[in-house]
Amino acid sequence: MSLTLLVLLFLAQLLWPKYLGEPHRPLLAVLAAGMAANLGEVMWLNRRQKLGWIGVARLTWTMIAINLAVAFGVASYSYKQDFQNLALMLPPIFQAAFRLSLSATILTVTISDALIFFWVWNYFRVHPPVDPNEYIGAGTIALIFAVTGLLVWALVNHLRRKQFALIRSLAELEKTEAKLRVEEKLAAVGRFSSAIAHEIRNPVAMISSALAMAENHDPGSQASREMRAIATKEAARLEKMTTDFLAYARPRSPQRVRSNVADTVGYIADILRPRATESGIHVRCECGEGLWAEIDAGQLQQAVLNVAMNAVEASRPGGTVTLRGLRSGTQIVIEVDNANGPIPAATAACIFEPFFTTKASGTGLGLAIARNIVLAHGGDLVLAENGADLVRFALGVPLSAPKEEGAL
């Protein structure tokens, strides 16, 4: 504001000498010095990253002193009886009101008012006789300065209190959010532990029951062999379940190597076809060019296989499962489609949660593990489409930089 007023006044002195009179060199020099000081403040502040309270106070008092001196100098060197040049004292008052305390604002207003009355006294000392009306005008200007300064300080102080209250509210909200996250993690741990106990209890109970029944029969009997076979089968299921638990709870960091994602998609399609053919399901693979990314091929194959197997198991005989690789912006997207939909809304909301499954023999960890793998690669696994004729899962991983592609 100070800089703008000084520039406008400087230009007015040069452009309208007919109305303002020929500008005096001392007046132009004072205006130029004021512009230089305020421009220097702006440039200096733009280069500063942080300024402490003491630095703010020192800078503010320095600029208040400079701008008051400029305003008094402009009024003195104008050689006129008018008060309009004293409006340059308003920016220093605003500076004090915005940046400093109430006492500092009152002090700045007092100094400004004192300079006004001193200027009137000095003007009539040099240009007698004294006009009492000028003192009344000076008093009016001084009152306006005082009211303006106090009002601006009150408004700024009110906004500052609101700002502090908002900052405290945000801090409390962040604490509450952090507490909720901790509670959510504890609840998730509880659900995880309960699910593990539930999933492990069934095969352990089956093994115990089968072994107990085997002991009641002759070791070479058919019934004993059947019971031992059941125990062996349940032990294998328990081992697979434990492996899945560990894969979800302690995911291995991907060992990334620049690879063609099309190879991964094609490989999964090849190993999926024999299983799909047994169920009368066709597997189709569609991949574009330039699908290079920094991936752990083994982990990504596991993630795609988990999603693709679900698509095969969800398809009707005669249906088609399509695996597609394509570029989308800065990502490579792998899409897995089947036409047996839609997935019920209640089920779709929970499909990525661990231990949620609609299969009689599932652990509910396949999609959860797949999503963890994709997240570790910097992408995500989502249910992109869920319609009657199309259910589509999409896995996205970041695309390799073009310069790296050109290096091969």
Brief account:
The protein is α+β, with helices and mostly antiparallel strands.
Could you characterize what this model shows?
This protein is of the alpha+beta class. The protein is 66% helix and 11% strand. It has 13 helices and seven strands. It has helices spanning 2-15, 17-20, 25-47, 53-77, 90-99, 102-126, 132-215, 222-249, 261-278, 297-314, 345-348, 366-376, 402-407, and strands spanning 257-260, 282-287, 292-295, 320-328, 331-338, 380-386, 391-398. Strand 6 (380-386) and strand 7 form a beta hairpin. Helix 3 (25-47) packs antiparallel against helix 4 (53-77) and helix 5 (90-99) runs antiparallel to helix 6. It is elongated, with a radius of gyration of 40 Å. Mean pLDDT is 83; it is low at 404-408.
The separation of the N and C termini measures 59 Å
The amount of beta strand, in percent, is 5-15%
Major beta-sheet overview:
5 strands, mixed
Question: How many strand segments?
Answer: 7
Identify the strand order in the major beta sheet.
2-4-5-7-6
Low-confidence stretches: 404-408
Radius of gyration: 40 Å
List the helices and strands and how they pair.
Blueprint: H1 2-15, H2 17-20, H3 25-47, H4 53-77, H5 90-99, H6 102-126, H7 132-215, H8 222-249, E1 257-260, H9 261-278, E2 282-287, E3 292-295, H10 297-314, E4 320-328, E5 331-338, H11 345-348, H12 366-376, E6 380-386, E7 391-398, H13 402-407
Parallel strand pairs: 2-4
Antiparallel strand pairs: 1-3, 4-5, 5-7, 6-7
Please describe the structure with a list of short key phrases separated by commas or semicolons.
single chain, 408 residues, alpha+beta, five-stranded mixed β-sheet, 13 helices, 66% helix, elongated, disordered C terminus
